[in-house]
Design a protein that fits this description.
Layout: E1 11-16, H1 18-25, E2 30-32, E3 36-39, E4 48-52, E5 59-65, E6 71-78, H2 86-99, H3 101-104, E7 110-115, E8 124-129, E9 132-137, H4 146-157, E10 161-166, H5 168-171, E11 183-186, E12 193-198, E13 201-206, H6 220-229, E14 234-238, H7 244-251, E15 256-261, H8 264-275, E16 282-287, H9 290-299, E17 304-309, H10 321-336, E18 339-349, H11 356-369, E19 374-380, E20 397-403
Parallel strand pairs: 1-4, 9-10, 14-15, 14-17, 15-16, 17-18
Antiparallel strand pairs: 1-3, 2-6, 4-5, 5-6, 7-8, 8-9, 10-11, 12-13, 18-20, 19-20
Length: 404
């Protein structure tokens, strides 16, 4: 398979500052530009970088060079020197697939097989939706290796087609070997909207134009849990997007579900996803800003058995952290007022710059301030196909609170 021209890979030797060297020994996958004190040659994106111990001159790790990123080297192999070739990729991808086997024993055919740094492939995401594989690239480093990687992914997953998605940075460059975002690079795709199953519930993903790879798989376990809690209940799903929590709740036997999102297009997707499944509950939609919509529902004295609030990331930059924390406070304050007595408030965050400790502390302080008694039922994190191997890789946290 040749979707990119053959590119020669240079080998580059580097040595690092003591603090950075210490992080590499702890298997941290990032080497920042200002950490490098010695580099043998300049190199290009995807060149192999070998990090040597500055005193003993022995192999510490190797990675791929990213000349346009502050994270100058993305590390992929630690401790033991290995040739980064077809065998290495085969072992790495098979190992990642094996970690997902338990999930695939359920009635689920959508999963993340490669999760960037956490599967030793930084900046490389690969999601499977039924028989379609969607690869999302966030770095130029992978273009020289795609001809090797794709056949392995296809063989291990058994997919019939592959779609390539690229970050905005990669789309707006002339260094992507002529590849385009949304390009089908293997097989044929009958329709850009692909149907898949998540714990027995049917959904759809637009793999060409949808966000990320077409859908958000990381909340799968939380959606399943809300579905299990929803029987004979009324549910409010805030920031519902394509209706993940809403549809699980309907299939789980909810009497009524209200999907609230500012995007009318997302709500149409939510309605379509609900129609893919058998349910007897009422599905209502509200196209409105979440904060405004919550305030309106409070003014109408609306109450729900379960209120799910799953906002997008509020802090993509460090400068946004303060505002993000304030937004979580507001959501907790508004959300708790809409929960019936003995009902459940489910509040989540996908902001990696807000730690789980800080997030839960913010929510619980606001619940105390509300004057309502509450019980912490559970706190959950990433689903099994989103393993975390380094601190910065953790972003998802979700709290379940019984409002008494």
């Amino acid at each position: 398979m040749n979707i990119t021209p053959s590119v020669s890979i240079n080998r580059i030797a580097v040595k690092l500052k003591p603090s950075a060297e210490k992080m590499v020994k702890r298997r941290h996958p990032w080497v920042f530009e200002n950490s490098i004190i010695k580099q043998s040659i300049e190199g290009k994106a995807g060149d192999l970088v070998i990090v040597y111990d500055s005193k003993k001159n022995k192999f510490l790790a190797c990675g791929l060079l990213d000349p346009v990123s502050p994270i100058r080297v993305k590390l992929i192999q630690f401790g033991i020197s290995k040739k980064i070739d077809e065998t290495w990729f085969n072992v790495t991808i098979q190992s990642a697939f094996d970690k997902r086997k338990e999930l695939l024993e359920t009635d689920t055919n959508s999963y993340r097989i490669i999760y960037g740094e956490n599967d030793n492939m930084p900046g490389f995401i690969a999601d499977v939706y039924a028989d379609v594989l969607v690869i999302k690239l966030y770095s130029h480093i992978w273009f020289p290796y795609l001809n090797t990687i794709l056949p392995i992914l296809i063989e291990i997953t058994g997919v019939k087609s592959v779609v390539l998605r690229m970050s905005r940075l990669l789309q707006n460059t002339d260094k992507s070997f002529g590849l385009k975002d949304g390009q089908v690079v293997y097989g044929t795709l009958e329709h850009e909207v692909v149907l898949f199953t998540e714990h027995g519930v049917k959904f759809s993903a637009n793999v060409i134009y949808g966000h990320k790879t077409g859908y958000f798989l990381d909340h799968r376990h939380n959606r399943k849990r809300v579905g299990e809690l929803a029987k004979h209940k009324s549910v409010l799903d805030v920031f519902s997007y394509a209706g993940g929590f809403s549809v699980h709740a309907l299939v789980g036997g909810a009497t009524s579900v209200t999907s609230l999102d500012i995007s009318k297009q997302a709500l149409v997707s939510a309605q379509n996803n609900a129609k893919l499944n058998n349910h007897s509950g009422t599905h209502n939609i509200l196209a409105v800003d979440a904060f405004e919509g919550l305030a309106t529902l409070i003014s109408k004295k609306s109450k729900f058995d379960i209120v799910v609030i799953d906002p997008p990331s509020f802090a993509k930059r460090e400068s946004e952290v303060g505002g993000a924390k304030q937004s979580y406070r507001r959501l907790a304050k508004l959300g708790v007022q809409l929960v019936k007595s003995t009902g459940m408030l489910v509040l989540a965050s996908c902001s990696s710059r807000i730690t789980a400790i800080d997030f839960f502390e913010i929510i619980e302080k606001e619940l105390y301030r509300s004057g309502k008694d509450f019980t912490i039922i559970d706190k959950t994190y990433h689903d099994s196909d989103h393993p975390i191997t380094f601190t910065e890789g953790a972003y998802l946290k979700c709290g379940y609170y019984r409002i008494n």
